[in-house]
TrEMBL record:
Protein name per Swiss-Prot or TrEMBL: Pachytene checkpoint protein 2 like protein
Origin superkingdom: Eukaryota
GO molecular function, one term: ATP binding
Family annotation (Pfam families): AAA
Amino acid sequence: MQVVEVCETKHRNLSDEMVEEKIKDIKTRQGKVNNIRLCETHGSKDFQIEFSGEIDDAIQRKIKIFRYSLFKDTKSFEHFTTLKMPTKKYETFFDDLVMDNSALMKSLEHFYKVLHYQATKVDVSYFNITKAILVYGPPGTGKSTLSRAVFQRLSIRMSKDTYLVELNASKIFTRYYGDTTGALSKILNGLEELSKTTTIFVAIDEIETLFMDRSVILENNEPLEGIRVVNTLLLFMDTLKYNKNMFVIFTSNFYSHLDPAFVDRCDISLMTSLPNEKTSYSILSRIFKKMMDKNLLEYEDIPDYEDVPNTSIIKAYLSIKNQSPRKIKKIVFHNMPLRKTTVDFLCSRIAKFKNSESQKDKKL
């Protein structure tokens, strides 16, 4: 069975027959054309879910369509604000992500499996499933973007209203310093109360600020407030097993700083890493294609890395290797001229820019 997502508007509603006709123009899974995305397939063998690869015509003969509209609505509560999902704000996040590993697809697969078993009345709490995922890795590797992209896709699969709550752990710790435990309890109680009537997704960034390893806190004779915070959060995670309406993704830059009891309670821990050569090529080519769409670059065909890579992009990559996706975008911006240019010219500037930066670092 082939899963298809269709984004609809007031002025655009496609019949099933029209959708079936249009998806013939999409060549790979996760490909998107005119607000129609060809998603994963559910094969007959071992009930396997395939998120990537070429299209299997035999499977595509049977499709399941998820239709959705985008929202801009927000609602403020005492300690947090919600975004109605799926939100227009994060609609492009999934397509913007380019990663070496399968963290994005593994996150989706896990939550889709939870939804499947919940629909069949299986009590996943028996398996100690908390519906919480930890994503960790170096800064700028797309952890926060991943969490929003996953929740955006997850909301499309659910027929009822869903909302996203975004929290930054370091801001909670700083804002309520001295009474972090009390403030955190109010936030968590508010989330639990809201989840009684609707499905909510919770994205908590920089979780190492709150879930610090308790043994380290004791060894360093730090205030016991830190231990109380961790204990409060652990109790909250224990309740997640029985809460069918709450899904959580934590992100962290420092996996080694996290309390082991917290990591153990997460269903899965996924690492994002700095891009390799192939991924860096994909990031640069995607940036350049978007610049062409905005008339900032002369149009030209950019082949996939597996085919015949663009040599100028490879040269640019060699000068920016070991940089995060966030840093790569900044480097491209710093080298954009104030006029329309070519891929070759921009790549040559990027190479020179990084070489000059390296020389500065050596002098320092």
